[in-house]
Amino acid sequence: MLNKLKLARVALGLTQEDVARRIGVSRQTVNAMEQAKYVPSTVLALKAARLLGKSVEELFELEADD
Amino acid sequence: MNTRFLFPHRYKAIGWVLFAAGAVLGLAAWNFEWQPAWLTFQIPAFVLPHPTLGKDGVPVPHNFLPELSAVLCILGALLAACSRERYEDEFIMRLRLDSLLWAVYVNYGLLILALLFTYDFLFLNIMVYSMFTPLVLFLLRFHYVLFRSSRAARYAE
């Protein structure tokens, strides 16, 4: 799964630590999500989308082999 | 993975201390045959029907250092492995589950190799160590992936 988390985060001038603290996860989780090494749960995806002011569909995108 | 089965974070350090104590005592008992007098007890013959424990119904003293060290190792490793991380979120839970599965696969793979290629006392020694290897393998793998992910987070921005 592809994501645009980093772009959306940087556009708002937030650090990974900021995002992690605001959505209640560790910074490692935010980094893993941005690196597409971890696909978040629905709840976490919705929290991230709400924080970054985007919809879940704008942030996450299915790949061809998903 | 439901965190209600995990101990609070503060038990992790206690677990490591217990495990280290058990490992040191166990190595002392296993390799140097150290048998402190204060751990030698008499137990009734019917409790453990073993040739060296109880003779004609008369209790025989047994040194419980190996048993104590094994219990300390198991309890300590369980506490260290099953205590929450400071930040226990869904990603950490996924790492925990993956590490547990990896430890099970590797442990039984090694066990199969031991069954096929080791015999007599070497096999017995390996069976003794195999009481602890699932937890030890899990701890090694889990902390390795945690370290790798925190290092990746440190260098990314």
TrEMBL record, chain A:
Example of a GO MF term: DNA binding
SUPFAM superfamilies for this protein: lambda repressor-like DNA-binding domains (SSF47413)
SMART domains documented for this protein: HTH_XRE (SM00530)
InterPro entries xrefs: Cro/C1-type_HTH, Lambda_DNA-bd_dom_sf
Keyword DNA-binding attributed: yes
Residue ranges constituting the HTH cro/C1-type domain according to the UniProt record: 5-59
UniProt KW keywords: DNA-binding
Cited Pfam families: HTH_3 (PF01381)
Protein name: Transcriptional regulator
Lineage: Bacteria, Pseudomonadati, Bacteroidota, Cytophagia, Cytophagales
TrEMBL record, chain B:
Keywords: Membrane, Transmembrane, Transmembrane helix
Transmembrane domains' residue ranges: 12-32, 64-83, 95-117, 123-144
Organism: Hymenobacter gummosus
Protein name (database record): Uncharacterized protein
Domain of life, per lineage: Bacteria
